[in-house]
Amino acid sequence: MLIKKGFYFALILVGLAVFTIIYYRFNPAKYSFFPKCPFHSLTGLDCPGCGSQRAFFFLLHGNVADAMGKNLLLVISIPFLLVHFFYKIKSVVLQKDFRWRVIYHPLTPKIIFVIVVLFWICRNIPAYPFYYLSAGH
Amino acid sequence: LLSSCFSGYAGIFPRILFIIYLPGINDSRSLLIIKNHIIFTWFMRGYACKLFKIDRYIHQLIFNTETYNNGSIIIFTATASTRPKNWLVESILVTIFCCLPFGIAGIVNAASVNSKFNAGDYAGATPSSKQAGQWTKIGFWIGLAFGIAYAVYCKQTVIMVFLGCQVKI
User: Fold this and answer.
1) Listing from the earlier edge strand, what are the strands of the sheet with B14-23?
2) Using the 8-state DSSP alphabet, how is residue B164 labeled?
3) CB spacing of B157 vs A105 below 8 angstroms
4) Span A13-72, pLDDT tens digits
């Protein structure tokens, strides 16, 4: 069980390293081989994940402002993800199950769901303040 | 006082927390008073978890009493169950990076896992957790397959870029 967990952990680390190198080296806005969002291609609307590849590229180059312009949700979620993965790494290293309690509070998923849906709606409104949430500007 | 301390991993099966020997107490009335005193001072749910270093969730405490000629014994047994994984972070990652509605289905199921477990529905929380995991995995694999398929579709560009040609479109 623990060996299996460690194997997955190593696999995830290698995958993350490969993706980081690719997204650091190539700008998704300039190279054509990065996958386009199927929802955006079909409907022309932005989904909550649209612009995250460009935002990731800008984040790797330390450009937080441009990353927030591409996908605000990604930039906001990163501190929370870091706390969660700190607990994950701690539990793999110390071989004991540590969990962040906030993730298991009954209100947390509901709040996140509301935020995601609101973000999805707001970024498709072609009016002045919401325009900056869209991925394409 | 006899006490066998409870520590480490708690399964779904009950385990004896500790046994208290009360010498000289035979009548059921004073035994009940002592038992209730221990319940109300020590075994408020979260406190018991801290006291016995259980990071799991105790959902049932059983108190058995046995009376003998020269005294009586209280046996405390706890049934604890592990909190099922709620896949919240994974479904957020799928929502952000795979741009498919499966991530949102995962978030909805994570909400039902948390609220069911906190309401005491331990049997119902496990299938919800399984379903959340299913949605998240479906979203992840479809997203990854779509990305790889797109890269294969553009394979000429990929090969030329990785060979060092400056191909920009």
Assistant:
1) B14-23, B71-81, B57-67
2) T
3) no
4) 899 999 899 889 888 888 777 888 888 888 888 888 888 999 999 999 998 998 998 999
Nearest one of B135, B126, B81, B84 to B107, comparing CA atoms: B135
Q: Which of A135, A113, A105 is nearest to A123 (CA)?
A: A135
Nearest to B88 among A48, A71, A108 (CB): A108
Contact at CB, B161 and A33, closer than 8 angstroms: yes
Q: Of A51, A26, A55, whose CA–CA distance to A37 is shortest?
A: A51
B16 interfaces chain A, CB cutoff of 8 Å? no
Please answer yes or no on whether B146 and A38 come within 8 Å at the CB atom.
Answer: yes
Tell me the ipTM for this assembly: 0.84
What are the pLDDT digits (tens) for B75-122? 877 666 667 788 888 899 898 887 678 888 999 999 998 888 877 677
Give the DSSP letter string of B100-120: STHHHHHHHHHHHHHHHHHHT
For the whole model, what pTM was predicted? 0.72
